Amino acid sequence: MILIMDHVAIIGAGVSGLTCGVVFAERGYRTAILAKETGQQTTSGAAAAIWFPYDAEPAERVIPWALETYKTLVELSNNSRTGVSIIELHQFSRAGEIQIPDWAIPLGAQPVIPNFPFVMSSEVETSLAVNSCFFRSGFSMRVPLTDTTIYLDYLAARFLKAGGAINTNVCFEKLEDVDRKFDLVINCAGIGARDLVQDRDLEPHRGQVAIVPRIENLSCAIVCDDAPLMYAIPRPNDCVFGGTNDLSNDLTSDPATTDRIVAECCRVLNIEKPTVLTERVGLRPFRKSGVRLERDQFSDGRTVIHNYGHGGAGFTLSWGCARDVLNLATL
Ligand SMILES: Cc1cc2nc3c(=O)[nH]c(=O)nc-3n(C[C@H](O)[C@H](O)[C@H](O)COP(=O)(O)OP(=O)(O)OC[C@H]3O[C@@H](n4cnc5c(N)ncnc54)[C@H](O)[C@@H]3O)c2cc1C
To answer: Is the pTM value of this prediction over 0.70?
Structure first.
């Protein structure tokens, strides 16, 4: 049976809501995004946002969504106005031998041997002499990088062009409060879903980053997920230094944490301390029982599709999840 759900409300204007908006509006659905905050003000605006399936569960659903998103982001990288580019990612471990994940091998992942001088691919030979002696092992692969300062606006513009509408400063206490004229409600509220649908499985994995000016000759992204979490991600106009991942609701930036992040990045990159342009804090919506992407029903019979709990991988999963939401809507 095909249900026609013409009037669609999407709650949330972060990367999940905006991507779902594009997918639905471009399929001809009358789609409105309703959200408290939009784009830069959301968690999505604080993200690094490099493609990598990090801090999201369960792997058997996350990896297919990530691979689907990878393909779309690679296509988008052909258009510089999207803010998507392709970058070489060097993923390191401090602790021991890093395993190249099975899914990364078809994407060209290669071991990198962190001895000194640093072994780099030909494209990044002129890169900084990264102090890779801090790391025990690593691998490299080319992945999409979305510059959030461009990409979130690009998604919003693409959604509006397809006929969608965005209403901000709208805050719902309960999802059922969404106007009944919408026969399909899509919940993309990120960490906000904790209160919106009383989901106690959601945990705020707080992340703080420091934005610094472009670092000369840093052309690849350097990431180490072992404590202390460290990443340096060069974007076209600046560079994101990270990071933290703590269980906390605190959205204020902590200057001591910024100092620690900058010091560790400078130690690894072997550079002088740069000026900090700004600090950002966001709450990664991590869900202990895994990303919630499922169809449900309100007591009044309307359909709701949940799409939240993407943890530290909201960009990485965005297109795969949005297309699955569409599949659920047309079941
Ligand atoms: C420091 C940091 C670095 C990160 N790095 C990466 C990375 O490199 N790669 C990657 O893929 N991911 C990364 N992430 C994770 C990524 O940012 C999140 O997974 C993603 O932003 C979640 O997007 P979302 O659209 O689901 O939620 P959000 O961006 O939080 O958007 C939620 C939306 O819902 C709205 N909303 C919430 N509650 C209500 C309500 N009651 N009523 C109305 N509206 C409501 C909000 O206003 C907002 O518009 C990072 C996160 C952080 C914090």
So the answer is: yes
